[in-house]
Design goal:
alpha/beta, globular, three-stranded mixed sheet, 360 residues
């Protein structure tokens, strides 16, 4: 068997149903599917039972240990020459495996691969806006896939493939609860293996369904970046610092806006009480401060709105992409700063610093 498709699942039966349906439509049929239920309270066992006649499908239930360990659990029970790791919230176009095979023929030395993600026309406007914020050059620098990137491509677990022998050599995923897929990609490269982006092997990726869940996801990603830097010195690049710089810049703009508004209001009060002439310095300086504070925020918002509207062909998605972009960058930035304080300043180790949210 050439491919083993391994999917960890936690309380997402509806998403698994859509993923399995897309797998039945693949033009390449030489694969098995391994579903690993990671301690879910709402399981997808009944969903999997519907597809047993259409797919070579194995379903396993285990106690909760996080996605990385669940992938390892599935890999140990798989048979394929290549292990393809997918998230449960993706849907595959029917040519996905065929595109993977084309990519392999072009890159014969490849030990691992990854592909981009995209939003499906059926996704909600919020999902499309979140997808834009995670894939746009103006938010992530295209680091998550595609052809325009500010950093070297590393496969991510929503769409990752690796040769079985390489997987076994490296011992699979670590016990990191967030960032475990990037940690694995780093270890693949550090071991001297060749990784490759296959731009045509993309998946539809649903991601989070609201901004609150999205913020928590990217906040944890910011924390994971510091943990990854500690594990793999020298991997922190400029592109990883940009969300933090953006976050500090937004905070600076808001503080400048508050100072400017305060000066302007003070000038109005002084003028109303006849204490200063109408053209007093307070109002003028306050107005300048407000303009300086608002201009970069409004300009960036306008760029996001125009670019997303054109890409998604929707004014509403373009508008929602503004809060999505700010959520993505600032959530990551705040997580990064929190982890920097705990790991780099207070010198806490990875497990004790985030035991409550990262490890069970």
């Amino acid at each position: 068997m050439k491919y083993s498709i391994i999917v960890p699942v936690y309380n997402r039966p509806d998403e698994v149903n859509e993923l399995l349906q897309s797998l039945t439509e693949q033009t390449v049929k030489d694969f098995e599917v391994i579903i690993v239920e990671d301690g879910s309270s709402t399981t997808c066992e009944d969903v999997c039972a519907k597809y047993r006649e259409q797919l070579d499908l194995k379903y396993f239930m285990k106690s909760n240990s996080g996605p990385g360990q669940s992938r390892n659990y599935g890999a140990e029970r798989s048979q394929g020459e290549w292990l393809i790791i997918l998230d449960s919230d993706v849907v595959l176009p029917k040519e996905y495996l065929w595109r993977v095979e084309c990519g392999m023929r072009n890159e014969k030395s490849m030990a691992a691969f990854g592909g981009p993600d995209a939003s499906h026309p059926s996704f909600t406007p919020v999902q499309k806006a979140i997808s834009y914020s995670m894939t746009s050059f103006f938010t992530t620098g295209g680091i998550r896939g595609g052809k325009k990137k500010l950093d070297k491509f590393y496969p991510r677990s929503f769409n990752m493939g690796i040769r079985r022998d390489v997987y076994q050599q490296l011992g699979g995923f670590s016990k990191m609860r967030f960032g475990e897929d990037i940690d694995f990609s780093y270890r693949i490269v550090e071991a001297g293996h060749h990784t490759c982006l296959i731009p045509e092997a993309w998946v539809w990726h649903k991601r989070r369904t609201d901004f609150r869940k999205f913020y928590r996801q990217v906040f944890n990603s910011g924390i994971a970046r510091i943990n990854l830097t500690k594990r793999h010195p020298g991997t922190l690049k400029l592109v990883h610092l940009l969300p933090t710089v953006f976050t500090l810049g937004v905070i600076g703009c808001l503080l400048l806006l508050l100072v400017g508004a305060g000066l302007y209001i003070q000038g109005e009060w002084l003028d109303a009480n006849g204490l200063r002439p109408t053209d007093n310095m307070h109002q003028g300086v306050g107005f300048v401060f407000c303009v300086l504070a608002l201009f970069p925020l409004l300009l960036y918002s306008l760029i996001i709105f125009i670019d997303s509207t054109i890409r998604n062909k929707s004014l509403w998605v373009g508008l929602l992409s503004i809060p999505a972009a700010f959520t993505q960058l600032m959530g990551y930035g705040f997580g990064f700063l929190k982890a920097w304080w705990k790991r780099c300043v207070r010198k806490q180790d990875e497990f004790t610093a985030f035991e409550r949210t990262f490890y069970k």
